[in-house]
Write a structure and sequence with these properties.
The chain is globular, with a radius of gyration of 19 Å. The protein is 34% helix and 24% strand. Strands 9-8-7-10-11-14-12-13 form an eight-stranded parallel β-sheet. Strands 2-3-4-5-6-1-15 form a seven-stranded mixed β-sheet. By secondary structure, it is of the alpha/beta class. Bound molecules: nicotinamide-adenine-dinucleotide.
């Protein structure tokens, strides 16, 4: 019989700090760029308009992972979270299950980490201001990660009360207006992607934007021509060009594969990041299973230090 630790959302947050998450996600991007960690394409099981399920596998660090996770955009109106599910972590040599983790907490940690990692890698060295637009579960995680990295951060959300609440909880502040939030040197957008947040002419020279919200078909946070003006980076071309922010710009013929660099290649030293201080850089994130694997492995490292961790006897 094996005894498998079960990490609730609280346990995941206790086990992995935002700083640790940034380092773990950085290592995952590099290992993936070098071909050491692998990731079959994620599978969408759709039940639109209600929502979809995603099966996201990865292999690396001596382990295999499967994240079974949802996106049900109408859930907040029902008092339910948009994203729920579990992460299963197994030993890659024996196939034995090693951990079960709450998928929403793993997702938020790695999404916040990727947003800030991209901003720090591609933003100007003298970037002074940071902002997060969309203060939901994953926007909160991005803001928390900026703060953990020693930056002040302003938040903006269509739901002003939510922005106030999250800002007070984290020690951030609310941007006086959307325009002021959008002008930050390091900008992260984490909205549902139903409405374009960055219209034509909105990005400023020297700015970086991490576009986190448009992670599925039909979603967009930025107008196509505006996206095409930027130096483009993504987490994974296949995912980003089919279901990410880049998909609509690719469909409109504004962007081709040669225009887009993988963040992992920049982090591994195989590609150039920002070329000069006046460039606009944009990172399109769809979310990768290797990021989840990085967080799950980091959580497992800390399992012994956690109290109240339930165990599944199998
Ligand atoms: N790239 C990734 O790795 C990744 C990971 C997780 C979630 N996501 C995506 O990010 C998006 C947000 O996810 P979440 O879990 O944080 O959702 P959420 O429902 O918890 O939060 C969304 C927030 O955006 C706000 N919002 C809606 N429209 C807005 C607008 N036009 N301007 C500003 N704020 C607006 C809402 O009021 C809400 O606070 C979703 O599309 C989700 O699929 C991407």
């Amino acid at each position: 019989m094996s005894s498998v630790p079960v990490f609730t959302g609280r346990h995941v947050e206790q086990a992995v700090s935002p700083e640790r998450a940034v380092e773990a996600v950085r290592e995952a991007f590099v290992a993936h760029a070098r071909g050491e960690w692998t990731m079959p394409p994620k599978v969408y099981v759709t039940n639109y308009p209600a929502g979809d399920f995603r099966a996201m596998p990865a292999l690396g660090g001596g382990h295999a992972l499967l994240k079974w996770v949802t996106s049900f955009p109408g859930n907040p109106q029902r008092g339910l979270p948009t994203v729920t599910g579990v992460v299963l972590l197994s030993d890659a040599q024996t196939g034995q299950l090693r951990a079960v983790l709450d998928a929403a907490a793993v997702t938020a940690l790695r999404t916040g980490a990727a947003a800030v990692l991209a901003a720090e890698t591609l933003g100007r060295h003298d970037a002074a201001t940071a902002a997060v637009v969309g203060a939901g579960v994953n926007g909160r995680a991005a803001a928390r990660t900026f703060l953990a990295r020693g930056r002040t951060v302003s938040l903006w959300d269509v739901d002003e009360e939510r922005a106030q609440r999250v800002a007070a909880e984290l020690g951030a502040h609310v941007a006086p207006s959307l325009e002021q939030a959008l002008a930050a040197d390091l900008l992260v957008t984490v909205t549902p992607g139903h409405d374009v947040v960055l219209g034509e002419g909105s990005l400023r020279p020297g700015q970086h934007v991490s576009l986190m919200g448009a992670d599925g078909p039909g979603k967009a946070e930025v107008a196509g021509p505006e996206l095409a003006r930027a130096r483009l980076f993504c987490d994974d071309w296949e995912q980003a060009s089919h279901g990410g922010e880049l998909a609509h710009a690719v469909e409109e013929g504004l962007v081709t594969r040669d225009d887009v660099t993988a963040l992992g290649d920049v982090l591994a030293g195989a590609a150039v990041g920002r070329a000069d201080a006046s460039e606009v850089t944009a990172f399109d994130s769809t979310g990768l299973a290797i990021q989840d694997l990085a967080i799950a492995l980091a959580a497992l490292e800390s399992a012994e230090d956690l109290s109240g961790l339930a165990r599944l006897e199998l």
